[in-house]
């Protein structure tokens, strides 16, 4: 789970300014609700992140970036 969180956090700053405002990440190793909740909660604390949703079936994390960032 920590590796999944680290991977997502490292990828967020790499998104170019002209990229889509919504990013979808496939999260491996986060198959429980607690893992998904922890990842979501940490990402919500990240500057520039607006909304975070976790799809348990697809094991995907959808991150909507704030417009001002």
Question: Layout of SSEs?
Answer:
Elements: H1 2-11, E1 22-26, H2 33-44, E2 49-55, E3 60-65
Describe this structure in words.
This protein has a 3-stranded antiparallel β-sheet with strand order 1-3-2, with helices on one face. The N and C termini lie far apart (27 Å). It has helices at 2-11, 33-44; strands at 22-26, 49-55, 60-65. It has one domain: Alpha-Beta Plaits. Strand 2 and strand 3 form a beta hairpin. The chain has 2 helices and 3 strands. The chain is α+β, with helices and mostly antiparallel strands and 69 residues long.
The averaged pLDDT comes out at 77
CATH class: Alpha Beta
- The CATH architecture term is 2-Layer Sandwich
Annotation field: number of helices: 2
The rounded Rg comes to 11 Å
- Could you say which structural class the secondary elements and strand pairing correspond to? alpha+beta
Low-confidence stretches: none
**N-to-C series of helices and strands:** HEHEE
The number of distinct structural domains comes to 1
Task: Give the termini separation.
Answer: 27 Å
- Helix share of residues? 25-40%
CA-based shape? globular
Characterize the biggest β-sheet: 3 strands, antiparallel
Strand order of the largest sheet: 1-3-2
CATH topology: Alpha-Beta Plaits
Secondary structure: number of strands = 3
Relative strand content: 25-35%
């Amino acid at each position: 789970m920590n590796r999944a969180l680290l991977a997502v956090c490292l990828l967020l700053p790499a998104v170019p300014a002209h990229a889509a405002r919504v990013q979808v990440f496939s999260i491996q190793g986060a198959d429980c609700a607690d893992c998904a909740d922890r990842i979501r909660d940490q990402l919500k604390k990240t500057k520039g992140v607006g909304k975070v949703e976790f799809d348990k079936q697809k094991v995907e994390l959808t991150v909507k970036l704030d417009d001002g960032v």
